[in-house]
Amino acid sequence: MSRKTFRRGIAAVGVAALTAGMTAGITAGMAGTASGAAATLAGAAEQSGRYFGAAISAGKLGDAQYTTIAGREFGMVTPENELKIDATEPVQNQFSFARADAVVDWATARGKRVRGHTLAWHSQQPAWMQSLSGTALRTAMVNHINGVMARYQGRIHAWDVVNEAFDDGTGGRRDSNLQRTGDDWIEVAFRTARAADPAARLCYNDYNIENWTWAKTRAVYNLVKDFRARGVPIDCVGLQAHVNSGSPYDPNFRTTLSSFAALGVDVQITELDVAGASPGTYAAIVTDCLAVPRCTGISVWGVRDTDSWRAWETPLLFDGSGAPKPAYTAVLNALNAGTPGPGPTPTPTPPPGTAGCRVTYATSAWNTGLTADITIANTGTTPVSGWRLAFTLPGGQAITSGWNAAYAPARGAVTATDLGYNAAIPPAGSTAIGFQATHTGDTARPASFTLNGTACAVG
Ligand code: G3I
Fold first, then answer.
1. Gap from CA of 81 to ligand 1 centroid (Å)
2. What is the C-alpha to C-alpha distance for residues 222 and 349, in angstroms, rounded to an integer?
3. Is the pTM here over 0.85, yes or no?
4. Is the CB of 271 under 6 A from ligand 1?
């Protein structure tokens, strides 16, 4: 009997081992058998350097059956709704982390890692964000990413930075308020995220990108390819894998996984559920992941069927009474049959940052006076902390008062300096300043602007 056949044979009695394990109170990753085959999903996945995880809800952490299964079986936790925008910033600039903390703390106290879901998404936006557009929305998105990532810096293994940005049928971008701020919103989100937590892996996450022949899959592939070519920071692609009659499993899934991986990113199956929970389909999906070295982990979207967002489809690995289903055994066996993977992926090294700025300058003038409204945008990849904006006023203009900056001297070659409270401008962020001045006829704006020694684009 070969080693693999032997391991499969042991794993086939996984349900019996599991039942014994429940009694013994075993924990994820420790549940081995004499043969080396693991008796939990997390433990079996770990054998090839991968994780097996699940979406976990704060509201169910008081359910002992739920936490017993989750504590034992899963090594990666995705808060199901608690890190979404409506949960973490229900009122603009008032962040709320109690429910997210409940899940993150539950996971980390048990040695589990956390996948953050999600920072920029057209759905589950709070009402204040739904009503924003243009620059205000773009700024709010950047502010949200910075606020949430700062809170969890160093505690989130991977972030779904952007979720579901592509359209199902056309393969184009999905129309949304975020998309209407400009095509570069995804890029800005990723650059912001890298600066906010350089140690976190940054993922693009979507559904219906499992089938290699689908236009949406190719569109996301092209986005990732473009990002990799241009040095836009991206480390991973999450394929949700909600399998049902409209999105059936296709064996070309393995080609999709390996094609994305060939772009130099990790791939993960992030929200797996299968309508009807066919053991064969579950096993095929797991085996596809195991066949691709950069497929580093699998998460199911819930614990028991009754916890699923599609409960009526009974799509998960445990039934409503907490008993493992045939699909559970199929997944466990497939994981135990896996070959060793590449081991943990090294933490990404952020590329050296670049400085960049754009100044918009609007004047409104009357016979002897003018007002200048200036916006300084950080278009680079490194945060600005403390700034000086240098420009030369046309002859005859003299600043009489200003706001949000100190201006000196009043005429000629002027330097505007931050006032401390507005010293920080994150990548893709901006700050607004302005002044009033007298003039003698020439109301033109300065010809050029320099921010901390870097020449800025104007307009
Ligand atoms: O918590 C409230 C409860 O107080 C209220 O009484 C009830 C009334 O409807 O709503 C409850 O909130 C619901 C929440 O789930 C928690 O159960 C929301 O209405 C409901 O919209 C929300 O659904 C979530 C859905 O995303 C929203 O888009 C699902 O739980 C969640 O599983 C699902 O997850 C998404 C991923 O984020 C992205 N990929 C697809 C996946 C499935 O849709």
1. 7
2. 23
3. no
4. yes
The tens place of each residue's pLDDT in the chain, 459 residues long, gives 333 333 333 333 333 333 333 333 333 333 444 457 899 999 999 999 999 999 999 999 999 999 999 999 999 999 999 999 999 999 999 999 999 999 999 999 999 999 999 999 999 999 999 999 999 999 999 999 999 999 999 999 999 999 999 999 888 999 999 999 999 999 999 999 999 999 999 999 999 999 999 999 999 999 999 999 999 999 999 999 999 999 999 999 999 999 999 999 999 999 999 999 999 999 999 999 999 999 999 999 999 999 999 999 999 999 999 999 999 999 999 999 986 555 445 544 445 678 899 999 999 888 999 989 999 999 988 888 888 999 999 999 999 988 888 888 999 999 998 877 778 888 888 998 989 899 999 999 999 999 988 999 998
Ligand 1 centroid – CA 194 distance (Å): 28
* CB contact at 8 A, 44 and 11: yes
For the CA atoms of 311, 316, 319, 323, what is the dihedral angle to 10 degrees? Answer: -160
Residue 310 in contact with ligand 1 by CB distance below 6 A? no
Q: Please tell me the chain's helix, strand, coil percentages from 3-state DSSP, rounded to the nearest 5.
A: 30, 25, 40
The reply to whether ligand 1 has any atom less than 6 angstroms from the CB of 270 is no
Rounded Cα gap, residues 294 and 262, in angstroms: 9
Integer-rounded Cα Rg, in Å, for the chain is 26
> Known catalytic residues?
164, 271
